[in-house]
């Protein structure tokens, strides 16, 4: 059990365990957007809805298409992550969340930014329930295949590829992963079929990180999970930019990324403590620094309106 023990993960675990339980979104009320997903009528006409699932998870829905991005719902407790203990996705949590987030019974596809457990862990279980193709790196699709997803549903991808997912056009973009305490966590590529399903947190290897541009009903939505200051998003002029700001690297990159994207709306993403169950509600991770993101946005007069979203809340774009 301790064979995979990692000292840096222990430090990360201890740092995160010191996070305050009252560290919620309430102080940012003026930045909060969206209504509880269950109270929002289905999209009509050219409406596009974005629903937040926690961590870097989102649902993008139009009247006839649904795309799910990086859903992480089962929430492995920190102790299991630190000990690299055997873990399994919970089909009942996945079902509950699908209901809470008003996800249709069948969807068109998943976009996966990278193979880490907090982005891919629940995708195989969710795909079994809702169908849809999985667009991700070769590593992410091989992890999904080893977890029981049919090869027919897997689209191993790379920057430059373009897909039709439902009525949406999805462009795959270059991205980088931010360093956590100076290191890229769980590095490595998976190049061929795995002999067994990934069973422990460390089995979910990063692979090649990706970002996406989703074009749907006239809206351009950019999504990533963070990055490094040296690599800015390769697109500009978007309606919504979902920009990861989980750790220092991506917080440092925030101004450059937003200036480059020149969006109407910026959703600062991946800020919550994903070691806690979703049922505990949104709590900031200690590595997040939303006050710094807000101060940067103001001080640098960045384009777009910076917003925050609570779990299972839906923002409607018209
Ligand atoms: Zn990651």
Layout of SSEs?
Elements: H1 7-17, E1 35-36, E2 48-54, E3 57-61, E4 66-69, H2 78-83, H3 91-100, E5 109-111, H4 117-120, H5 123-130, E6 133-136, H6 138-146, E7 154-156, E8 162-165, E9 168-174, E10 210-216, E11 219-223, E12 240-244, H7 248-261, E13 265-269, H8 290-299, E14 305-307, E15 313-317
Parallel strand pairs: 4-5, 5-6, 6-7, 11-12, 12-13, 13-14
Antiparallel strand pairs: 1-15, 2-3, 2-15, 3-4, 8-9, 9-10, 10-11
The structure holds zinc ion.
Residues 114, 116, 177 line the site of zinc ion (ZN).
Largest sheet: number of strands, sense, barrel closure = 8 strands, mixed
Cα separation of the termini:
51 Å
Integer-rounded radius of gyration:
18 Å
Q: Which second-level CATH architecture applies?
A: 4-Layer Sandwich
Based on secondary structure, the structural category is alpha/beta
How many DSSP H or I helices?
A: 8
Strand order of the largest sheet: 1-15-2-3-4-5-6-7
Shape assignment: globular
Instruction: Please report the total strand number as a whole number.
Output: 15
Provide the number of structural domains.
1
By CATH, the superfamily comes out as Ribonuclease Z/Hydroxyacylglutathione hydrolase-like
Uncertain ranges: 1-7, 9-22
CATH level 1 name = Alpha Beta
Helix and strand sequence? HEEEEHHEHHEHEEEEEEHEHEE
What's the CATH topology label? Answer: Metallo-beta-lactamase, Chain A
Q: Proportion of β residues?
A: 15-25%
What is the helix fraction of residues, given as a range?
10-25%
| Bound chemical compounds | zinc ion
Q: Compute the average pLDDT.
A: 93
């Amino acid at each position: 059990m301790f064979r995979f023990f990692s000292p840096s993960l222990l430090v990360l675990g201890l740092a995160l365990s010191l996070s305050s339980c009252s560290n919620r979104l309430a102080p940012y009320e003026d930045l909060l957007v969206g209504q509880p997903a269950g109270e929002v009528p289905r999209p009509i006409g050219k409406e596009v809805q974005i629903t937040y699932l926690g961590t870097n998870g989102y649902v993008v829905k139009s009247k006839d298409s649904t795309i799910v991005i990086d859903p992480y719902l089962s929430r492995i407790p920190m102790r299991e992550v630190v000990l690299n203990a055997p873990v399994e996705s919970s089909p009942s949590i996945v079902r509950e969340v699908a209901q809470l987030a008003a996800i249709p019974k069948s969807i068109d596809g998943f976009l996966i930014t990278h193979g880490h457990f907090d982005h891919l862990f629940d995708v195989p279980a969710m795909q079994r329930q809702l169908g849809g193709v999985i667009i991700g790196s070769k590593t992410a699709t091989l992890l999904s295949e080893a977890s029981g997803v049919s090869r027919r549903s897997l689209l191993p991808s790379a920057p430059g590829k373009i897909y039709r997912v439902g009525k949406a056009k999805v462009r795959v973009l270059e991205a980088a992963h931010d360093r956590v305490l100076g290191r890229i966590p769980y590095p490595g590529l998976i190049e061929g079929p795995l002999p067994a399903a990934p069973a422990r947190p460390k089995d979910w290897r990063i692979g090649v990180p990706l970002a996406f541009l989703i074009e749907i009903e006239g809206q351009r939505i950019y999504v990533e999970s963070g990055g490094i200051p040296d690599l800015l998003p390769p697109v500009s002029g978007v309606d919504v930019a979902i920009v990861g700001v989980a750790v220092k690297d991506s917080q440092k990159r925030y101004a450059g990324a937003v200036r480059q994207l020149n969006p109407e709306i910026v959703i600062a993403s991946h800020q919550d403590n994903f070691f806690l169950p979703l049922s505990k509600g949104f709590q900031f991770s200690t590595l997040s620094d939303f006050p710094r993101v807000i101060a940067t946005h103001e001080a640098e007069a960045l384009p777009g309106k910076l917003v925050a979203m609570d779990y299972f809340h839906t923002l409607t774009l018209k």
